[in-house]
Amino acid sequence: MPLRLTLLESLLQRLNLLPTPLLDTPLAPGIAKALITACEIGIFDALSKHPLPLNVLAGRVNCDPCGLQLLLHVLVETGYLRQKNGVYRNTNLAQRWLTSGSRFNVAPYVIHSPDIVAIWDHLPEIVQSNKAAMRMPYEEDASVPQTQAQLERHYAGLAALATVLGSEPIMRAPIPTNATALLDVGGSHAAYSVLFCRKYPKLHATIVDIQPGIEAGQRTAKQSGLQDRLSFVYSDIVRDDFAAPMENQFDVALYFHIAHLLQPAINQAVLAKVARTLKPGGMLIYVDQVTNRRYRMRLAALMVHFMALTMTTVGGTCYPFTAVRQWLENVGMEQVQQYSLFTPLATMITAVKR
């Protein structure tokens, strides 16, 4: 974790002699802002090839050397950089997770994180009322420059997260090896479709989403070189009957990280449309946070519960397996199975169309 305690500090914390709330705030938000700033101005990419002295690094990222050095001190103390004799280099942590040349790069999600933090301004209201306090950017006018920029950050961040964390459900999903048609519902950035297509050479994916999401997916298709195996359909999955022109056409359908955005009745209505697109015997794969699981890691449990609280702010939340199973059975699915994933923030549920 970014905050590195010494053995003495860890002991004091365990003895409750260290004021831990001061580590959670304001120190933790300050560290987060320093990391976001480093990603935005390109420090880790600038150091990805070679270590650099302060003045050279300042020129590369267009910063005043004295101002930059203040930020670099924080990045050294939090374990993202190392400094020796005035020369700075990435640690293994930064090189793996925060450089654009790494396939594990989550920097786009880090840059997107202030949009999530802004949601938390409404938490006192949510705790008191348990009612939505704002709308997601999907529901705003995408032609407004501010909303457009926010959506671009949002989709880029989700694509990075999916690319880094999406391998496990793709590897474990028990879909037939001869499947040829996949529907990615609300798939926007198309990163999950790309992962499935890479694993299954005969598979063609169709991504259904609103226009800003599709534009993000088309960028992913171009970057991955899979344009010929990815198709895109412009549709609002909640308001439109996207299933009508493609009933009984797909071997597999993905419902990945959609449920937490929607209310129960809306989830069931969308899943009913998804079921219509599947061939008899076709498989629906649902991936999202599930609240009634017994998590082996405290970090995973914390992330799920925090997601449930955050999503309530925009009118959704996270649901237990029993609720998801009921939705699926109500729309004509059977053989509902739950898979515990090692990946934080994810449980996989599969079902087969009768």
In short:
This protein is of the alpha/beta class. The chain contains 15 helices and 10 strands. Helix 2 (21-41) packs across helix 7.
Give the helix/strand class.
Answer: alpha/beta
State the fourth-level CATH superfamily of the largest domain: Vaccinia Virus protein VP39
CATH fold label of the largest domain: Rossmann fold
Termini Cα gap: 46 Å
Give the C-alpha Rg.
22 Å
Task: Report on the biggest sheet.
Answer: 7 strands, mixed
Quickly count the domains: 2
Helix fraction bin: 40-55%
CATH architecture descriptor name of the largest domain: 3-Layer(aba) Sandwich
C-alpha geometry: globular
Report mean pLDDT, rounded to a whole number: 93
Q: Estimate what percentage of residues fall within beta strands.
A: 15-25%
- Number of contiguous helices: 15
Residue windows where pLDDT falls under 50 for at least 5 positions: none
Strand sequence of the main sheet, in spatial order? 6-5-4-7-8-10-9
The string of secondary-structure elements, in order, is: HHHEHHEEHHHHHEHEHEEHEHHEE
